[in-house]
Amino acid sequence: MNILLLGAPGAGKGTQAVLLAGSLGLKHLATGDMLRAEVKAGSELGKLANSYMLRGDLVPDDVMIRMIQERLKAPGAGKGVVLDGFPRTVGQARALDSGLERSGLRVDRAIYLVVSEEELVKRLAGRGRADDAPEAVRRRLVVYRDQTEPVLAHYRAAGRLKEVAGEGEIDDIQRRLVAAAK
Ligand code: AMP
Questions:
Q1: Domains of the chain by range and CATH?
Q2: Whole-model pTM above 0.85?
């Protein structure tokens, strides 16, 4: 079972993806967490990624696609994954679909965590991450609208998108997600 958790920056994908992966016995793969680990380790990839991240821009598709393909092949991803923060462009979505297909797998569910723009801005302002400076937040929301929203249309057209209300109590949102993953 491979599940995508889609949604705007600040929609709560990280929090919910950890819980969802735990309750379904799947591996949680978060590209933002992987990139932050590379930045912290001071690797070449981390140095490259950091400049994009601090501006609120996306790290180039080729880098991200290579990164996710490696993780999907790694041990522990066998029962399936909850992907959090990937795909963020239609190019990434197509690469993911065809990569999984080559292994006889597919995206079983694409779940869109719906949160109003007003609530997103409020949540992002209270988070305090290095890339949560006001300029970068504004840029991330624009990039999301331009480059990531088309990913929703991609999976909607494939008949695989489900929408879940992402506002309210964490436990209630999680219950809705578990139901949508069935
Ligand atoms: P996140 O933790 O998912 O909000 O990601 C933090 C930052 O990492 C994003 O603003 C991007 O700069 C970068 N990033 C994470 N995932 C991706 C991805 N799939 N494609 C491109 N950039 C990404």
A1: 2-181 (3.40.50.300)
A2: yes
With CA atoms as reference, report the closest residue to 93 among 152, 50, 143: 152
Q: Is the CB of 58 under 6 A from ligand 1?
A: yes
Closest-CA residue to 24 (of 9, 2, 51): 2
- 53 Cα nearest atom in ligand 1: 12
For range 62-78, the mean pLDDT? 90
Helix (H) or strand (E) holding 63: helix 61-73
Radius of gyration for the alpha carbons in the chain, expressed in angstroms and rounded: 15
Does the pLDDT at position 152 exceed 80?
Answer: yes
CA 81 to ligand 1 center in whole angstroms: 18
Question: Does residue 126 carry a pLDDT above 90?
Answer: no
21's enclosing H/E stretch is helix 13-24
Which of 5, 68, 88 for a ligand 1 pocket mutation test, highest count of atoms within 8 Å of Cβ? 88
Mean pLDDT across 5-27: 96
Average pLDDT over residues 4-19: 96
Does pLDDT of 149 surpass 90? yes
